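Backbone-to-sequence.
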């Protein structure tokens, strides 16, 4: 086997590659309809998805919203860049135009909706009298709360005019095909991008409970919205009757592609799951124990063991450092392993952005803590203030990819050789 860290990086690159819309979307497109076709979408992969659509159909009418720096050249579909993970005016204006675009369609028309992770922030149309500034504050509070992504999305749906099936409702009676890239644990279409094309059975009371449970500070305008009927579309609503939602790329496919490479290199591969959730530092401690127990049971001539997992971990802000769940996982893992020989790991977000930093994640090995100490870095202190990205930047452990143009969530791999 090659050196462990380049090997782990190769596995991550393969996981990203198989989720690239240019590699995987074409097979899910029906023949181009004869009537009017409108392409809309949002997410960090949506511009690449639009590019893949036009590679098959040719120039199309439409509007797609993606993250700054993630635009792709399209001949007909307009690509708008906006802010993520906290929404901005560009996203607000583009979402209003998107709703206008699909709002006047008829039964003979078709909407192709391209949805990927990131759509929750990029599709912005606050409900009631909630202002953009208030929406931004609520979004920031959600991200810092430690709430699981599914519960964050429940809140987002009820404070929106476009999420929770509302985009599909506006497009009715047109036929809609929604192609989705999953970045959520369990691959629930209703949770991908807060489900703009999928009905949702949650209630305003559910939102109040989440706000209370995680101590999320919200303005009075939010309570006003929750006092009445929000626009979230319930499952079974007639306006969803002409919608087909298809997940065509998911975390499991990326993990399996990485597993194939590792098995060909002689590794025993153990996939721990593609839908792991929880605090990054807690999951790191659990996986460190598993790695050490695995190594303790190995004989000198045994094949390396690779532990693979996906999902979406969270970070509860405790300090003012720069960090994301993947980097925090790696930092906590390095501390828990205490320099154990023969164990290396990578954790990265497949969209190339871990948290709010333009960094995918990090790599660690048995010498990570020693190298940090030699540079005067205190790993425990960095973890205490959520400064994992800063720590790995200063100790040259970062993985920086730039925009990957896809998003099937977190990728974690721990390589274990006999100690």
């Amino acid at each position: 086997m090659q050196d462990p860290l380049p090997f782990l990086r190769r596995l991550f690159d393969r996981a990203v590659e198989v989720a690239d819309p240019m590699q995987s979307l074409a097979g899910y497109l029906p023949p181009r309809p004869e009537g009017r076709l409108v392409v809309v979408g949002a997410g960090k992969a949506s511009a690449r998805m639009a590019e893949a659509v036009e590679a098959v159909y040719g120039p199309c009418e439409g509007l797609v919203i993606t993250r700054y720096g993630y635009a792709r050249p399209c001949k007909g579909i307009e690509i708008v860049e906006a802010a993520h993970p906290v929404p901005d005016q560009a996203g607000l204006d583009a979402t209003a135009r998107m709703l206008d675009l699909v709002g006047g369609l008829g039964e003979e028309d078709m909407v192709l909706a391209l949805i990927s992770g990131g759509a929750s922030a990029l599709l912005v149309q606050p409900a009631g009298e909630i202002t953009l500034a208030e929406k931004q504050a609520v979004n920031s509070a959600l991200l810092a709360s430690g709430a699981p992504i599914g519960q964050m999305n429940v809140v987002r749906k009820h404070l929106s005019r476009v999420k929770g099936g509302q985009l599909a409702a506006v497009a009715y009676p047109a036929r809609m095909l929604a192609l989705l890239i999953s970045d959520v644990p369990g691959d629930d279409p209703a949770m991908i991008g807060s489900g703009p094309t999928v009905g949702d059975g949650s209630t305003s009371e559910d939102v109040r409970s989440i706000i209370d449970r995680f101590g999320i500070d919200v303005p009075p305008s939010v309570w006003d919205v929750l006092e009445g009927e929000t626009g979230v579309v319930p499952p079974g609503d007639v306006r969803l009757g002409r919608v087909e939602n298809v997940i065509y790329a998911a975390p499991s496919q990326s993990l399996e592609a990485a597993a194939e490479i590792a098995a060909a290199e002689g590794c025993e591969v153990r996939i721990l799951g593609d839908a792991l959730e929880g605090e990054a530092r807690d999951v790191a401690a659990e996986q460190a124990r598993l790695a050490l127990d695995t190594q303790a049971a190995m004989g000198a001539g045994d094949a390396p063991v690779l532990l693979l997992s996906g999902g979406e971990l969270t970070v509860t802000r405790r300090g003012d450092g720069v960090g994301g769940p993947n980097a925090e996982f790696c930092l906590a893992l390095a501390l828990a392993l205490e320099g154990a020989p023969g164990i290396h790991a990578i954790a990265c977000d497949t969209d190339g952005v871990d948290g709010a930093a333009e960094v995918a994640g990090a790599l660690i090995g048995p010498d990570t803590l020693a190298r940090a100490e030699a540079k005067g870095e205190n790993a425990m202190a960095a973890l205490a203030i959520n400064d994992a990205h800063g720590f790995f930047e200063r100790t040259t452990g970062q993985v920086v990819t730039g925009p990957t143009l896809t998003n099937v969530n977190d990728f974690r791999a721990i390589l274990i050789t006999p100690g």
